[in-house]
Amino acid sequence: MRSNIVVFWVIAGFFALIGTVYTVWHLIAYPELPVNEAIEWVGTVGLYFTALMAIMVAFYLGRVRSAQGGELPEDTLTADIDDGDPEIGEFAPWSWWPIVLAGSAAVFAIGLAVGQFMLPIGLAIFVVAIVGWTYEYYRGYFAR
Questions:
Q1: Which of 19, 21, 16 is nearest to 54 (CA)?
Q2: pLDDT-derived band of residue 143, with 50, 70 and 90 as boundaries?
Q3: Whole-number Å distance between alpha carbons of 38 and 28
Q4: Closest Cα partner for 40 from 54, 52, 29?
Q5: Element (H, E) at 33
Q6: Mean of the per-residue pLDDT values for the chain?
Q7: Maximum distance among all Cα pairs of the chain, rounded to whole angstroms
Q8: Considering only CA atoms, which of 142, 135, 143, 144 is closest in space to residue 94?
């Protein structure tokens, strides 16, 4: 986590520096215009907001690291792979329902882009996929 914090602080500094260079460059490129018209606002605001988001992530990660009271196994050079192996739940490796769910999202997105008649079709496939994925352990070979 320590390396992530450093990376986000470096990203924040980079985007703050580039935002300043970008703004000054536009001021130098258009000296005949007033300051508020010489600045290209979309790029300037976008670069500074990117720096602000990186600062927020770095600050959050720093607070989490100080609150956890120790180093993560990923930050320790002598750690084994099994040290950072938490229980993350039970997943069915044979399940086809995530593919159906992704297909429903694709049909819905195509419906937004092409024609609204496909939106209910995408929603219907979504409902079928969610119900199927939720109840896949209650029927078939793996019923309990």
A1: 16
A2: low
A3: 9
A4: 29
A5: none
A6: 89
A7: 77
A8: 142
Q: How far is CA 23 from the centre of its chain?
A: 28
Mean pLDDT of 46-50: 97
**Residue 1 and residue 65: Cα distance in Å, rounded?**
7
The alpha carbons of the chain give a radius of gyration, in whole angstroms, of 25
Of 25, 61, 63, 62, nearest to 44 by C-alpha is 25
Domains of the chain: which residue ranges? Answer: 2-84, 97-142
- Encode pLDDT of 59-112 as tens digits: 999 999 888 877 777 778 888 877 777 777 777 777 888 999 999 999 999 999
Over the chain, what HEC string results? CHHHHHHHHHHHHHHHHHHHHHHHHHHHHCCCCCHHHHCCHHHHHHHHHHHHHHHHHHHHHHHHHHHHCCCCHHHCCCCCHHHHCCCCCCCCCCCCHHHHHHHHHHHHHHHHHCCHHHHHHHHHHHHHHHHHHHCHHHCHHHCC
The stretch 4-18 carries a mean pLDDT of 96
Confidence check: pLDDT of 114 > 60:
yes
Asked if 136 and 142 touch (Cβ cutoff 8 Å), the reply is yes
